[in-house]
Write a structure and sequence with these properties.
By secondary structure, this protein is mainly alpha-helical. It has 7 helices and 5 strands.
Length: about 200
């Protein structure tokens, strides 16, 4: 969760109070309709009871270009995409959206610990296979993936990109996927987000 340096908000709580005082006159940018940043902003609105206008851009770069001078008030972006601007001091980070702090930005609190209990948005990637893939192939791909993620060179590259590699079993992924679908289907319905 990043804001322009000109923002009066220095924390998530201050941002929520500022947003409530403006009565819906704030705007949050994203890299487009239905993207992680868009959904995260809608979940944040829903979780805090504030109102903001969504401004979709054609990519994160153009949104960031409008965040820096304050043409939009906040953006929910992936950490790797905004870390150089945070470190360079051109924008201010208020919090991370994950449920736990991230090692490469340990000084940033989570939104959940900043007064929005249960808030958890993490961009994730997974390997999927066709439904009728034989179990032994799934086990082999899973085993090879776990081994690759444990490799020092992969870990180092992930750290450089501010990515945390997490292992899960196919069963754990299935449960996680179901919970994500339940959470986001509600947000999508309430925000009236339609595919374009």
């Amino acid at each position: 969760m990043v804001v322009p340096n000109s923002s009066p908000a220095k924390s998530v709580r201050e941002f929520v109070n500022f947003a409530k005082s403006t009565r819906g006159k704030l705007a949050f940018g994203s890299s487009g309709n239905g993207t992680v940043g868009h959904l995260c902003g809608e979940l944040f609105k829903r979780s805090t009871g504030i109102d903001m206008t969504h401004v979709p851009y054609r990519g994160g770069g153009p949104a960031l270009n409008d965040l820096i001078p304050g043409r939009i008030n906040v953006m929910f972006a992936t950490l790797p995409s905004v870390l150089p601007q945070i470190q360079g001091g051109t924008i201010r980070a208020l919090a991370v959206t994950s449920v736990a702090r991230v090692p490469f930005a340990a000084n940033l609190p989570t939104i959940a610990e900043s007064g929005v209990p249960g808030f958890d948005v993490t961009e994730w990637h997974a390997l999927f296979m066709p439904a009728k893939t034989p179990g032994e192939i799934i086990k082999k791909v899973h085993s090879d993936t776990v081994e690759a993620l444990a490799s020092p060179s992969v870990k180092q590259k992930f750290e450089e990109l501010a990515i945390a590699g997490v292992n899960s079993t196919p069963e754990e992924l299935s449960l996680f996927l179901r919970s994500e679908m339940e959470k986001w289907s509600l947000v999508i319905k309430e925000a009236n987000i339609n595919p374009e």
